[in-house]
Write a structure and sequence with these properties.
666 residues, alpha+beta, Rossmann fold, Coagulation Factor XIII, Chain A, domain 1, 3 domains, 5-stranded mixed β-sheet, 5-stranded antiparallel β-sheet, 22 helices, 15 strands, 14% strand
Amino acid sequence: MLVPPQRKLRAPWIALLCVLLIAFALRLFRIAQQSIWYDEGLSLYYARGSLTQVLADASQTEHPPLHPLMLNLWVRVCGDSELAVRMLSVCWGMVAIALVYRLGQRFLPGIAAPATLLLAVSPLAIWYSQETRGYMLALALQIGLFDCALSLFPIASGSPRHHGIASWARYLLYAVLGASALYAHLYSAPFLVALNLAFLVRFVRLVPIVGLRRLWPHAAKWALSQVAVAALFAPWLPSVLAQLQANATFWHGAVGWRQIAGRTLVALSVGETLSGAWATAATWVLSLLALLGTYALARQPRRPSWASLWLWVVIPILLQVLINQTRPKFAVRYLIGVLPAYLLLASAGVRWLFAAARRYAFRPAGWAASAAILLSTAVVGGATARSLGAYYLDSSLYRPDFRAVAAYIQQHGTPDDLIVLLGGHSYPAFTYYYRQALPVLPLPDRLLPSTREPVDVSVLETLDQAIAGKQRLWLVLWQPTLADPTGLVVDELEQTYHRLGVGQTFHDIGLLLFDVSPGPLLSAHARPSSPLVANLGDQVQLLGYRLPTATIKPGGTLYLYLYWQSLTAMRHDYKVFVQVLDEHEQIVAQLDRIAGAEAYPTSHWAPGAIVRERFLLTIPPQVPAGSYSLIVGLYDPTPDMPRLPVQGQGAGVDHVLLTQIEVRDR
């Protein structure tokens, strides 16, 4: 039976429309279920006000301005409800799916449909299509840029694909899309590196076939287009360089290449809401399909090179690994741009299996191909369904619940209350929901977190000023180890004021309530009650200590507060030792730990920074009554464990004698 040509042409578009409808439904489903969280709150904060203000605010962050500018215009038209602000990402996610279909047709017509379907149901793509950030915008621009770049790559004949105005229009479109991708997200830069390497590979492969002379015009135009991209992005480059110098949102330590590559492959396959056997199996299946797809594409010499897709996958991951050697900050969303290439390769593998099943029908090879198709569908489909089920329904995986915290305070707050946010970078997300009259104090008062500038003892004076005239203090805790790694604020509030009950717990956020009616009492603890000046190896100065009691029973716990000041930028992460010595200088009690905190070691201390630490030292029950020496010092935790030399008050050779303590049976 003959099929009318119109019906043949219509069928792929009907299939694409069905996939787009499925994708839209998945992205709209429960889109407002989860609270706006930090990243989204930051986007909304930067998108407020005039366009000039948006540009000014965005220049103070590591994120370029294209998404905030679009969001600013979007909110003016559609409003700022959770549904409205997230719909912008949904729209760009839908554009990305349509562009993947077009890109798949350019490689091989048979891979367009499975690649589009895989992206439509991808848990990773759905997650970030429901988040008010620029990741879907950057993804759509990268796919469009890749499609445009392929039309500019030289072909085997050496003649240009387009002539005259059409040719230059393509190069202009490439320059605009390339600059737009950078303005959407800085992690588009590795993608541009991959594109240029793909062009170079294509160029080198064609030189023996076509000749350098015929290929040279392609190379010249391509180089000019890269210059155009750089020129268009140049106005924003000073802001990028300034943020690279000032931004310290990365954590201490390093993220290894295995962790980056492994987490990325799993997330590309099943998202970030599934682990265990299903996630592992689906990752293996899609990875093997991608390898099979490489073989299938390699057998199509007249189609775009498979190497360009692998460069799209590998180069961003490799550059992320290199970046993490000096700036150890990684999240899978930074590499979401490689998702289309990964799915296109896997889809080429699927197409090869279908072709093999048809070619060898009713033969062992055909049965094996059919079995592989069924197994792959079952594993990937089952894993995707489980991952999406967890994303939609498992509240333990939800974003931090700023909405519930704000609602609770609005319901139970009184006019004489104060709200303190620790960390202060949660201010945009919290105030998106909390819009009543109670004062909100962010600590530290910074929109971008910094691992090198947490709160210090001066925050106690800031709190005292805010507490004056207030009856209660609500303390909202989000990422407190980043904002206050030594636990200064919570410890001083709990030691100074009566803690009241809060009748609810909240996902991924803490909420404490204190009775501060006695008035400002915290400033007295901003300075050591027993000051001294001791220099430890010209690295750190001990300003003094606070010891609430110097008398203790055997088995009791000694509370000691030390006040350090950094004298220089330190390369080592020193450890503190606190020891109780008897009259023969034998250790009867000891506590060693990293100076500052795991998230704030001495290598992160800025020169002049003052750090207060609390030590709880337990005296063993068998220690006899008597007088004992309390000493402290610093050492480098290398195999030799050298201690820093000490000069100044209480100085021993390698320690500071603080005071004598009394152990009494009664």
